[in-house]
Amino acid sequence: MLLNLEKQFRFVNVVIHIICVPVIMLCMLLLGTLAQPLFPVPEAVAIESFPPNLATVAGVVYTILYILMEPVAGALLAPLLLAGTAFVNHLSSTHGNTAIYWSLAVQAVAWIAQFVGHGVFERRAPALLDNLVQAFFLAPFFVWLEVLFSLGYRPALKARIDKAVEVEVARFNISKKGLSPKAPQK
C-alpha cells in the first residue's frame, strides 16, 4: 500500500474527511449556540446540557434523520452526536465568546484541509460547491459509514454505495470533458 500512490491518496483523503467533517460539524453546532432559545421549556423538564437553541435542535434533528436513513448506523452515531451537542452547549455556556472564536479558527483550518484534500487528492471541487444538503447533512453520516465499513459493517450496503459512487465519478468525469452523461442502466 505504501508504494501505491492512488491508494495512498485515497487513504489520506479519507483521513482528512474522518477528522475534518466531524470537527466542522461540531464547530457549526457551536455557532448554533449563539441563537437565543427558540422556544420556552418548563423548568421541570429542562436539561441543562440541551437548552432549546439552534445547536440542540440541529443535533436532535440530525440524530433522528440519521436513524431514519440507516437505523443501526444512526443509532450507533446518536450517542456521539448528542454528546457532541451537549459538549458544544457546555463550551458556549462556560467559555462564551472565547469558544466561538476558537471554533471559527478551528473551522477555518478544517475547511482549508477539506479543500486541499479535494483539490490535491480528489482533483475536484468539494461537495459544498455542488450540493449544500450533501455537504452539511450527508457528509457527516457518510464519514460515519466509512468508519463503520472499515470495521466490516454491512458489506452489501458498502458494495451498493461504492457502485453508486463509481457511477457518479464517471458521470462527473464525462461532464468535465464536456460530454453529455447518459442515465445509468438498471
Task: Please render the helix and strand layout as text.
Elements: H1 5-32, H2 54-69, H3 71-95, H4 97-122, H5 132-150, H6 155-176
Helix pairs in contact: 1-2, 1-3, 1-4, 1-5, 2-3, 3-4
Protein name: DUF962 domain-containing protein
Transmembrane segments: 12-35, 55-88, 100-121, 133-153
InterPro entries: Mpo1-like (IPR009305)
Can you give keywords for this protein?
186 residues, mainly alpha, globular, disordered N terminus
Question: In angstroms, what separates the terminal alpha carbons?
Answer: 34 Å
Total helical segments: 6
Radius of gyration: 19 Å
Count of strand segments = 0
- The share of residues in helices is over 70%
Strand content: under 5%
Mean pLDDT reading: 86
GO cellular component, one term: endoplasmic reticulum
Protein name: DUF962 domain-containing protein
Transmembrane segments: 12-35, 55-88, 100-121, 133-153
InterPro entries: Mpo1-like
Explain how this protein is built.
The longest helix has 28 residues. With 186 residues, this protein is mostly helical. Helix content is 73%, strand content 0%. It contains six helices and no strands. The N terminus is likely disordered. The chain has one domain. Helix 1 runs antiparallel to helix 4, helix 1 packs across helix 5 and helix 2 packs antiparallel against helix 3.
